[in-house]
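Re-run with default settings, no changes from the original entry. Doing this only to confirm the output is reproducible before filing.
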Amino acid sequence: MIELPTAHKDLLLGIDVSSYQSEVHWRRVRDAGVKRAVIKIGEGTRGASCAAERCDGARAYLGDDAVDGYHECRLMGHGPDDTARAAVERAAARRVECLWLALETTWIHELSDDECGAWVVTALDAAALVHSTGLYTSLRCLRHLRRTRYAARIAEHPLWVAAYPSPRVVQGGYSPRLPKPWTSWLGWQYTSGRKGALPGVCPGVE
């Protein structure tokens, strides 16, 4: 079962929920110790299935201020301003506390380093003008973004980082080692959906 690493017991336990999870029973999730939910609310310029239902369910059991939303970015074919506008609209409709723009390794290779950096910082800056916004991505993506001339500007935004060491290493006090210029993270996703198990969630959870 997912639980906080021993060295990070002062943090809140949260879960990432998307259409990948076919069933979410929020009462059982809350009773398992989860304090926060980050729910997929869109991708590209469109919404995500089940987002409204998932956000409402999480708020009912975790609280009105315990639900964030993330919007997956599609760099090719979707401009950063259009993506930011769509993400902010979804965030407002779903009444999420913080909006996270999610960047996956699959998409960063479609552009040059500086094109990718410019896209990301433009989207983050545009969304942050309207809604509390941060970047959700992996250590691998951060290592790519640090090569761009926009890295320092991107690092000004809150970071939710995905890094999956072994459970033994996690419990031993591991914390993600961020590449410069990043110095801190607000959220750390330390297990993948294939390996994370939690009462009330099927098939798995991050």
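Strands lie at 14-17, 23-24, 36-43, 46-47, 67-72, 99-103, 133-138, 159-162, 187-189, 201-202. The radius of gyration is 16 Å.
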